[in-house]
Amino acid sequence: GGAHLGICGSDVIMEFDYPELYAPLDLGIGGCRVSVARPATDDPDEDWTRYSEIRVATKYPSITRRHFAGRGINADIVHLHGAMELAPMLGLSRIIVDLVDTGSTLRANGLREVETIAHITSRLVVNRTMLKTRPREIAALIANFRDALISA
């Protein structure tokens, strides 16, 4: 509630589901994806999506839990911060959920991307209270951002 406007990744919006934020504009920058990855040495024919329970290391426990629950899989979440790709090497989990851009960090750590959960971009976010109490000013700022995107 301390800022009128801000910019954050849609991964943050998805993870925390802040009811006081409105995300009126996709800025189309900072593109990446939230993906599932596992060791490249794992059998590619193994259908891990049919498991009833898996252990997953991630810094996105809500996104991960919702994703796997939607498939009927109980995800035992290992909530980590930092280098998620180290979790399989440390024996914390065989599967990770993390942000991926080129995939080079995954490959460098012996992992491969096996599924994309969501595509991520940066969003303009607005404090809903400010939107209600200062609608003209906030609408003008949103319009300025929109115009800048169109002319870019």
Record keyword descriptors for this entry:
single chain; 152 residues; alpha/beta; five-stranded mixed β-sheet; three-stranded antiparallel β-sheet; 8 strands; elongated
What does this 3D model show about the protein?
There is one protein chain. The chain is built from five helices and eight strands; from the N terminus they run E-H-E-E-E-H-E-E-H-E-E-H-H. The protein is elongated. Strand 4 (53-58), helix 2 and strand 5 (74-79) form a beta-alpha-beta unit. The protein has helices at residues 10-16, 61-69, 104-108, 128-133, 135-151; strands at 5-9, 21-26, 32-39, 53-58, 74-79, 95-100, 111-120, 122-127. Helix content is 29%, strand content 35%. The chain has a five-stranded mixed beta sheet. Strands 1-8-2 form a three-stranded antiparallel beta sheet. The relative contact order is 0.28. The model has no long low-confidence stretch (mean pLDDT 94). It is α/β, with parallel strands linked by helices.
How far is it from the N-terminal to the C-terminal residue, by CA?
30 Å
Q: Radius of gyration over alpha carbons?
A: 18 Å
Query: How many E strands?
Result: 8
Mean pLDDT: 94
**Sequence of strands across the biggest β-sheet:** 5-4-6-3-7
Beta-strand content: 25-35%
The oligomeric state is: single chain
Q: How would you spell out the order of helices and strands? A: EHEEEHEEHEEHH
Q: What proportion of the residues is helical, as a percent range?
A: 25-40%
Class by SSE composition: alpha/beta
Q: Describe the largest sheet.
A: 5 strands, mixed
Low-pLDDT runs of 5+ residues are none
Q: Any idea what the shape is?
A: elongated
